Amino acid sequence: MPSYPFHTTREDVRIPLPDGTELAARLWRPVSDEPVPALLEYSAGRHTDWTAADDARRHPWYAGHGYAAVRIDTRGHGNSGGLPAEPGSEQELADGTAVLAWLAARPWCSGRIGLLGAGAAGTTALLLAARAPETVRAVVTACPEGGHRLGGAVLAADLHVRLTALVAGAARPPDPRYVGDAWRTQWFARLESLEPPVDTWLAAGEPTVPVSVPTLAIAGWGDPSCSFVLRLLATSEPARALLGPWPHGLPEDALPETLRWWDHWLRDIDTGVLKEPALRSRLGTRWAGDTVWPSPDVRDIHYGLDGPLRTAGTASDDRYVHVRSPQHTGLNAGAYVLLGRPADRAPDQREEDGRSVCFDSQPLPEPVELLGIPSVRLRLREEGRPALVVARLCAVGADGTSELVTRGVLVASDADATVELAACAASVPAGHRLRLALSSVYWPWVWPAADAAGYAVDPSRSTLTLPVRHLAADLGADAVVFESPVLPDPLAVHLTEPLTARPERVTVHDIGRHEWRTELSLASDGTRTQPDGLVRDEHTVTAYRVLTDTPLSAQARTDHTARLERPDIGWDVTLQTRAQLRCDATHFISIIQLRALEAGSVVFTREWQHRVPR
């Protein structure tokens, strides 16, 4: 254990809720005679197994720097009592509010509390802070998750995967090492109570996530949360943001910045955080700082689709260009959520460009730096039906290599359509071309339209708008630097990798059937033995299929198997979960299956079927 300003202790505690339910918590505290601020991470991630490795790194580090760091499993998850509640639900937030009151009343707590969360827990932290702003003094949110739509289109790349993870996570039993013989009764109560929120997720638009207290937002470029982070900066004060070259989650490199944030708001120490630029971002090969956001060093540059950008596809007798893409357009999109795997990043986009209508600029006379949220304003032909519009921005080298910069999706119902692309930071070298690629399909990111008709766009009344940062913006500015944290040694988890590792991403083209199939596997799958003797084995496979000319053939499926075992007491449970989604012309159709086994014997099965209007 490295040397920190405070010696620390760790204990497992049970936190009572008003209805008598108890939540399982792990508490790291500094050895101090004075009350200290508390940091709460409130998550469904199971702190004794699934998140144990991350928890054992950051929470002792926070405790060593003078904070009571508390990691709590939400109701019905891990070793907490009660039945599972949907993330962000009224029940989860009411429980969280009670937890905050309990923490503030502890004799070792100064009454000042900060909230910490990544992914879904990052969204919950913001929602919970809005419920108790008098108790919560500051928030650190990393990659907060949003809704299940992208520009009005239903996500295919993420929705059924998250449904599978939600059902599988809620169905996992308590651990008998921590709850004793009551584990089985609690487990069956959880299994019987499960109800996947398919109807809610498919019908809901983008949620409104309030920002009510000082917030430090952190994300990696390419994460779906980046646009939200920039909007948070533009509308909330005080707020700061870090956008770097990180996968989804809370990066360890950012922990010293979170500590500075906590010290300022929870301990009244002037750490200079409000003197830092509002946005510190990785731009090309360097870190850049923008004092305020929107930044005066970033201005919108407009490119007309019939002038600075041109396509070879405009017919001489028709001012409209028809966009009608094959149904496998999007197979080279890369992962929707970047987890740091080699296959996550989108590869060379030339195949995708060939399935799209492309508008290219002339070679750039000087480098162009992009920072912000690009957009495309399109004039579409009136067709009397919604159109799925997909826009990709690429940087094309002299050798033809097409590198994805950003992309956006819109279900357009009107002739005037504005497609917002995802927030990006990019440095495009001189001599490269900018390419705007339009398609009518982006599978398997979003579900295809009910028909393959596509849409028609008038380039003469369409414009690409790019947020261009001044090349001299950093002259005279202080360098953006970060301190590297000295964290505790990693948890001694033994990983047994499979004898035959599955490829992370495989695409098969069945030429005879005109079918495209893509299969994804997690590189993190395998068997892990934890220091307390728990053995957990996990395998996930996600598959997509579509016929080239048949949008209603699209199907998505995720199979997930998780096994938990304690050999010393003969405890052995397995959960097998499958989520399948497809659609017809009017409805989405989902089938979710769950099977639970104890010592190899099936003890519970259930299937849920949903049919939700498109």
Please characterize this protein's 3D structure:
The chain has 614 residues and is an alpha+beta fold. It has 10 helices and 33 strands. It starts with 7 loop residues before the first strand and ends with a strand.
Low-confidence residue ranges: none
> Which strand order do you get reading across the main beta sheet?
1-2-4-3-5-6-9-10-11-12
Q: What portion of residues is helical?
A: 10-25%
Q: What is Rg?
A: 25 Å
Main features:
10-stranded mixed β-sheet; globular; 9-stranded antiparallel β-sheet; single chain; 17% helix; alpha+beta; 614 residues; 33 strands
Topology of helices and strands:
Blueprint: E1 8-16, E2 22-30, E3 36-43, H1 52-64, E4 68-73, H2 90-104, E5 109-118, H3 120-131, E6 136-142, E7 149-150, E8 153-154, H4 159-171, H5 176-179, H6 183-193, H7 198-203, E9 215-220, H8 226-235, E10 239-244, H9 255-267, E11 279-283, E12 286-290, E13 298-304, E14 321-323, H10 350-354, E15 357-360, E16 368-372, E17 375-379, E18 387-396, E19 402-412, E20 416-420, E21 424-428, E22 433-439, E23 455-457, E24 463-469, E25 494-496, E26 505-510, E27 515-521, E28 526-529, E29 535-547, E30 550-566, E31 571-583, E32 587-598, E33 601-613
